[in-house]
Design brief:
The chain is an all-alpha fold. Helices cover 76% and strands 0% of the residues. The chain starts with 11 loop residues before the first helix and ends with a helix.
Length: 127
């Protein structure tokens, strides 16, 4: 009996699922980064940077929730999430030597890229 491998699914389902996963990761990393920044202190703990990471975490949580329940607004929140993820990554930039902040920047940029892809889809039509 011959076994055929199925090609990986492509299209809106994979885009939304991957974006959901990246948003959840980004939320967690941004919240962990706030804790890390407060522990190390200094300029990493400035209100503006903390705000960028918390804003990113909040919008990623919201976007993940919208994706989970199939909201027609998921693409719109993903677009906002992409912008805030980039802002959070920029808040990490001055601390490239700090492993936690470098990881945060990388996670935020990856999430931003997936969110932009989702935002470009017509979710209402794809659902």
């Amino acid at each position: 009996m011959e076994t055929r491998r199925l090609a990986p699914r492509r299209g809106p389902w994979t885009e939304t699922t991957r974006t959901l996963i990246e948003c959840l990761r980004c939320r967690e990393v941004c919240e962990d980064t706030v804790t890390h920044a407060l522990r190390v202190g200094g300029s990493a703990a400035e209100d503006e940077r903390i705000g960028a990471w918390l804003d990113c975490a909040d919008v990623c949580r919201t976007t993940a929730t919208f994706i989970r329940r199939g909201s027609a607004l998921a693409g719109r929140t993903a677009g906002i999430a992409a912008d805030l993820c980039e802002r959070a990554a920029e808040a990490c930039a001055p601390f490239a030597g700090d492993g936690a902040l470098a990881a945060c920047a990388q996670t935020c940029r990856r999430c931003a890229a997936w969110c932009r892809r989702l935002a470009a889809l017509d979710i209402e039509r794809a659902a």
